[in-house]
């Protein structure tokens, strides 16, 4: 994700860089077999001498410098209509820390969500730092505090990483989680990121390719394709993989539930492939922000209208919009994505509560019982 700079060197680096509970792995009983995944079009990621590639071809790459110049000359992004005092909920931290029975999801901010499912605590793309940047003095600054602080988290069993960009893979956050009382979590990461973690002293990690699966504690995990790219420096573009995650309770669970975490992605046929492979998911966490201008961000970030189509493609029962309202990464105002999402869901004829957003820190209870959930989207 390209980011602001104070010097030419800093700008170049940021622009290119940002743009134990573990059980033995085995074939999960709650989802598609490898053959079924392959039949749906989900296979290992293509790789060439230029690094990993997307399923539907290379991303179109607009000029970073043209975009930066346009932002400077037009004063973008505009401030939110009502300022930066976004509502932040204050969940019952003691209850969350003690909870091992109720299934919940708490939006912490950006792409960071706490999932408590089947007694397992899972966190997605943990990002608690003040800047989404390799630098402490430059790069997008956090505009809204995390809905839960690091020391307010329950003991985390599993960390899911979608890709290497600084707003999704934050050094300070993963180091803090690795040092949590009670032992480190298991880090489930895309190909190439395990070595990066090892250099930070984080060794309890497993890396997956697209279509790979693993079983951890009382949950099954699949790494699935996304349309994006990776880099943390000027020289490592696409050297590590990117993707999303499907999380399911095992077959026979007392309270079956499934979640799709999209990570960071442009729109592509990958979503139809995921929908074909998994049939239906109870909850989808789909990015709805960081989409403007479309000529530059379109290939790598869905906009709210495309997010609604993604919701339909993966056959989700309900979706929560993420990847908005925390860092000013692109040209839309920080409070615009929920408005555009509401317009898109209305235009699509969806119920008002089918695809919504949460306050930072807001917790929802997850219930997949037949009388509490809508049917899968189509």
TrEMBL record:
The residue range of the signal peptide is 1-23
Question: Does the keyword field hold Signal?
Answer: yes
Q: Which SUPFAM superfamilies match?
A: Metallo-hydrolase/oxidoreductase (SSF56281)
**UniProt domain Metallo-beta-lactamase: residue ranges:** 121-324
Going by the UniProt record, its keywords in alphabetical order are: Signal
- Would you tell me the Gene Ontology cellular component terms? cytoplasm
Which residue intervals make up region (Disordered)? 29-55
The protein's name: Outer membrane protein romA
Species of provenance: Paraburkholderia caribensis MBA4
């Amino acid at each position: 994700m390209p980011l602001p700079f104070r010097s030419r060197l800093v700008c170049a680096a940021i622009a290119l860089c940002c743009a134990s509970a573990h059980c033995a792995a085995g074939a999960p009983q709650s989802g598609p077999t490898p053959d079924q995944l392959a039949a749906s079009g989900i296979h290992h990621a293509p790789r060439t001498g230029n690094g990993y590639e997307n399923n539907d071809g290379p991303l179109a790459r607009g000029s970073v410098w043209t975009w930066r110049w346009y932002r400077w000359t037009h004063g973008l992004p505009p401030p939110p209509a009502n300022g930066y005092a976004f509502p932040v909920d204050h969940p019952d931290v003691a209850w969350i820390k003690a909870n091992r029975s109720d299934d919940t999801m708490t939006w912490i901010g950006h792409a960071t969500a706490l999932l408590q499912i089947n007694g397992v605590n899972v966190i997605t793309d943990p990002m608690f730092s003040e800047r989404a940047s390799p630098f402490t003095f430059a790069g997008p600054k956090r505009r809204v505090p995390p809905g839960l602080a690091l020391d307010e988290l329950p003991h985390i069993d599993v960390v899911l990483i979608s890709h290497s960009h600084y707003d999704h893979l934050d050094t300070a956050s993963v180091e803090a989680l690795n040092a949590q009382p009670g032992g480190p979590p298991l880090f489930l990461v895309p190909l190439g990121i395990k070595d990066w973690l090892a250099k930070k002293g984080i060794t309890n990690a497993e890396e997956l390719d697209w279509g790979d699966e693993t079983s951890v504690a009382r949950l099954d995990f699949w790494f699935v394709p996304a349309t994006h790219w990776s880099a943390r420096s000027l020289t490592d573009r696409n050297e590590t993989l990117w993707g999303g995650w499907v999380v399911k309770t095992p077959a026979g669970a007392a309270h079956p539930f499934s979640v799709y975490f999209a990570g960071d992605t442009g729109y592509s046929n990958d979503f139809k492939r995921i929908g074909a492979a998994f049939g239906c998911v109870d909850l989808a966490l789909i990015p709805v922000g960081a989409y403007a201008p479309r000529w530059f961000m379109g290939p790598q970030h869905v906009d709210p209208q495309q997010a609604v189509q993604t919701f339909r493609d993966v056959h989700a029962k309900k979706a929560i919009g993420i990847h908005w309202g925390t860092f000013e990464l692109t040209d839309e105002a920080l409070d615009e994505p929920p408005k555009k999402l509401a317009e898109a869901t209305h235009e699509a004829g969806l119920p008002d509560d089918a695809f919504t957003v949460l306050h930072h820190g807001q917790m929802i209870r997850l219930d997949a019982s037949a009388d509490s959930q809508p049917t899968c989207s189509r």
